[in-house]
C-alpha cells in the first residue's frame, strides 16, 4: 500500500497500469460545483492511498524519490488476506453504490454479515451512535457508509 501526495493518486495509478504493475484505486462519484454549475467528478475514495501488488522490485522502484516524488511512503500490511477481503468487499459495494462517502474513522459498533442482495457475504458494522451501516477498511482505519435493509443482515 502506498501513501501518496493528495491529488496524485490517479496519475500514479495510470503510470502503474502502463508498466503492467497491479494496483487498486477505489474511486467514487461526487457532485462538485464549479463555475456555478454542478459537475459529476470521479475521485479517490481514500485520498492519499493507492493499493499496489508487487514484490521487492516494485517497492524499490516506487520509492525512488527522483522518479516518483509523489510517493510519500510504502506501508507494509501484515494481514494481506484480511486487506484483500476488505478491498474485495469495498469493490463490490462500489459496483452497486458508486457514490459512497468516506467516513474519517471506523466507528465502534456491532459486526454483521450481509446475507442477501448484491453485497451478500461482506461484513459490515452497525454504528452504535447513529445506527448507520458502514463497511470498514481496517488497515486505513477508515470506513464508507452504505445503505442496507436490516432484513439483509445477520450478526457475525
Give an overview of the whole structure.
With 156 residues, this protein is an alpha+beta fold. It folds into two domains: 2-74, no CATH class; 100-155, SH3 type barrels (Roll). Helices cover 22% and strands 36% of the residues. It is built from three helices and twelve strands. The strands form three sheets. It has a six-stranded antiparallel sheet, covered by helices on one side. The longest helix is centred in the middle third of the chain and has 17 residues, at 80-96. The chain is globular. The mean pLDDT is 88.
Q: SSE layout and pairings?
A:
Layout: E1 2-4, H1 9-19, E2 23-24, E3 27-34, E4 37-44, E5 49-52, H2 56-62, E6 71-74, H3 80-96, E7 101-103, E8 109-114, E9 123-127, E10 133-137, E11 142-146, E12 153-155
Alpha-beta classification? alpha+beta
Distance between the termini: 28 Å
Widest sheet: strand order?
7-11-10-9-8-12
* Low-pLDDT residue spans: none
Order of helices and strands: EHEEEEHEHEEEEEE
Helix content: 10-25%
Biggest beta-sheet profile: 6 strands, antiparallel
- The shape is globular
Give me the count of strands.
Answer: 12
Q: What radius of gyration results from the CA coordinates?
A: 17 Å
Tally of separate domains? 2
Mean pLDDT: 88
Quote the beta fraction: 35-45%
Number of helices: 3
Amino acid at each position: 500500500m502506498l501513501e501518496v501526495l493528495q491529488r496524485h493518486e490517479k496519475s500514479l495509478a495510470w503510470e502503474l497500469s502502463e508498466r503492467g504493475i497491479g494496483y487498486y484505486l477505489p474511486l467514487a462519484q461526487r457532485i462538485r460545483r464549479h463555475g456555478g454549475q454542478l459537475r459529476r467528478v470521479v475521485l479517490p475514495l481514500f485520498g492519499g492511498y493507492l493499493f499496489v501488488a508487487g514484490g521487492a522490485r516494485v517497492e524499490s522502484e516506487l520509492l525512488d524519490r527522483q522518479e516518483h516524488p509523489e510517493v510519500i511512503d510504502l506501508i507494509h500490511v501484515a494481514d494481506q488476506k484480511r486487506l484483500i477481503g476488505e478491498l474485495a468487499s469495498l469493490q463490490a459495494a462500489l459496483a452497486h453504490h458508486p457514490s459512497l462517502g468516506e467516513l474519517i474513522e471506523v466507528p465502534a459498533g456491532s459486526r454483521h454479515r450481509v446475507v442477501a442482495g448484491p453485497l451478500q457475504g461482506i461484513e459490515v458494522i452497525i454504528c452504535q451512535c447513529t445506527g448507520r451501516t458502514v463497511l470498514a477498511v481496517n488497515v486505513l482505519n477508515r470506513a464508507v457508509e452504505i445503505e442496507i435493509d436490516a432484513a439483509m443482515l445477520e450478526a457475525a
